[in-house]
């Protein structure tokens, strides 16, 4: 669990708590007040504060969440008015429970124990969770929207195990992640699955390839938001992003990667999202499953195709090419269409714990940031992505060699089958000839017998 950054302040009658929780699933927030202890829980955060004095929960104000600052705000009444709480700025001290003073027995057991001398070994320590404030100024590797996140990977290892293919991202550079990701894809690429879809799954996959998604008919300015989508915009709030040119480019390239994953799921489910949809989008996007950053749009396109041929149910080159066209069409349809796709992803991830973390790290920021990007830039991104040419050789799965070998095997099988059919035909013809000869011999014998009888009758006469 993460221990969030927090601040405490006070007046004569109240204590105020501010909890910074940018990754919080706000709907699941819980707060418990018990004398001098305040416990805050909101996955993936856990905070337990031990105050120097007693407080009461303020029933008139249960707390609120500020979307802009991503902070929880709470107020508590002091049990004793005008009491001053010392050292509220020493937050490290407030995380440690107060020691209980007990009378030592006259006779002590000096045998070694499992717990070190300084550890808490009483019953109260059984539920004690180690708390450590996150250092946001660390020099570790970055991730998240525009690579603005850092310093929380070790604290979210349990949650990340379910949504990431590689959890040691904070100890690796972007280039190292690329090498590790491609090695992982190479090891998991199934030649049998790919060839089965190529040679045997044509009817089903052709149905997916020729299906027409809704955005194919959207003309500029015709994309409309539903009331539910507008309400979601309100809950996401607003914030400003100070990004340099490289950070903007990184964010746009990852956006294309995420949209491809969405478009693949949309096409393969014929627009009807399934219980696997969140997993599919998470898995196909290297941004979301590896915290990958891209340097060029060709890298994005290669990654998209590779992952579409490794992980999902349908692994077909033509299908991947059609999804690439979908991605281009989404971008060329403009900012509103991109937003509708991001909102759909947001809702799917929010219903697929712990993928709501991906909303906090990427999708929420994209939903807000895209509203401030010009239509011209979005459409230009679609044009540039469309112009990038990627061949089967660029994918580095030896697809051409695999397909050639499969076609050769198929041709040999067809020749063998033709030869077998030819042999069967010859045997049938031989059988028919034999039967014909037999019938002819029988006829001649019958005729001869008949002639002999006639001759015999004539001689008797």
Number of strands: 8
Give the ordered list of helices and strands: EEEEEEEEHHHHHHHHHHHHHHHH
- What is the CA-CA span between the terminal residues? 124 Å
- The percent of residues in helical segments reads 40-55%
- Tell me, rounded to a whole number, the average pLDDT: 82
Global Rg: 36 Å
- Weakly predicted, low-confidence segments: 101-127, 135-139
Instruction: Tell the overall outline.
Output: elongated
Main beta sheet: 5 strands, antiparallel
The structural class is alpha+beta
Number of helices: 16
Q: Beta fraction of the residues?
A: 5-15%
Short description:
By secondary structure, this protein is an alpha+beta fold.
Describe the protein.
By secondary structure, the chain is α+β, with helices and mostly antiparallel strands. Helix content is 49%, strand content 10%. The chain contains 16 helices and eight strands. The strands form two sheets. Strands 1, 2, 6, 7 and 8 form a five-stranded antiparallel sheet that branches. A hairpin with a 4-residue loop joins β7 (64-66) and β8. α7 packs parallel to α10 (297-308), α11 (317-332) runs antiparallel to α14 and α12 (335-350) packs antiparallel against α13 (356-370).
